[in-house]
Amino acid sequence: MSFLGLDIGTSGCKAVVFDREGRTLAAASRAYAVVSAKPQQAELDSQQVGDFCLDVIAEAALQCPQDLVAGLAISSQGEAFTLLDEKGELLANAMVSSDARAMGQVRTFDSAGLYEKTGHTPHPIFSLYKLLWLREERPDLWGKTARILCFEDYIHHRLGLVPAISFSLAARTMLFNVSEQRWDPEIIASCGINASQLSRPLPPGKVVGTLAEATCRKLNLARDTVVVAGGHDQVCAALGCGATRPGIAALGSGTVECITAAFSEPIQSEALRDANLCTYAHAAPGLYATLAYNLSGGNVLQWFRNEWGAAEVAAAAQNGENVYDMILALMPESPTRLMVLPYFAGSGTPYFDSHTPAAILGLRLTTSRGEVLRAILEGLCFELEANLRILERSGIPVQELRITGGGAKNRRWLQLKADIFNRPVRVPEVTEAGCLGAALLACSARENRGVDDLVGQWVRCMEPILPDPERALFYRERFAHYEQTYFSLRALSETIF
Asked: Sign of dihedral through CA atoms 25, 1, 404, 303?
């Protein structure tokens, strides 16, 4: 018997199968592209995403004929949703997190009491505002909408189940009351939504349903495979790397960079609210989490590759090396004297600043590509360091960071993080921690094993990477200049942009 975790991201989906001891048995993945037909638009073709998700489930499960998959759960990107009509057919593409069309709805919608109910502060990233935009700007679609599904519950629909949504993913819509753990009737009524249009919320690890025999055959799964509620990808990854107790936080290093810290009781303090740091359900049952994040991360590295890495792209295609490893090798070992404000996609926490653009300061004729790249990564880390300091002041100190995702695979990038954060960083043996966290929940439900016990058995980390004291001191002094840079550029951008 084995267990599958499906991770649905912004740029692709992947399925990983684990045995009862948490060892990886098989994996499969597919990539897809974000559609940006007009400025501020960012969409995914939900039909394609659903097709690819079923493909990777079947492909990964096919590789385990002696250890059939008997349970699965889903780790899903947040905020994105799909509209379906009464026949269950798609009405439009899914609007993903980075879609910024709903800025006007954030300004005009009455936000009084939203933080206390939802644990989140207003931002066009959230489904609430995108739904308001659709109601106002696309009444043709709105009038046909029978169901509103995020990607976790959309895949349940594609699997032939009555869709359910995990508490953590429901919270990312800003339609969910995190204290009462239900759709908030006042919020959904103010949006013109009926509760029947939304999926039933379930705690992580709760069984959603058992797949039909024909579905199991089609997807190469064991008969009577169960599907279990998973969660938002960030908290699933936190579960999958063992960030389930105070002092240890996950740092998901993917398209965006996101710190996830856990605590036992919901915290809705003024300090967290003012820094736009949320409180919502963790993927570990009974726990809560907060997120601190950059909207820029691996997407900036991809931009650098596309614009400035043609030589490395060509060389990688010729010799089979990883193009990102080749690009990161351009970086000098020492800190740069450049300063980068990394708001290529706007800021995340603590400012939710969608107006101030990215900036690279200190360029000279002698500046190399490698220096610019290192300075960009330094800026990304400075932005997260600002969030770590806010968490500490709010009573959520972080002593160790566990790095997951694509950014966990390069030693030079990891060392840079350790130096700027002045904290040890560790990489779990399974860097696809979202898949592991989801599969762990499926195993817990199917075999009635405790989640804490499974974390102790399944999560194994490599030796910590420690900060270099000299570089850490340099970066501590440099951080003060970084904060000054932000406030100066924000004031300047209000004048010239």
From this structure: positive
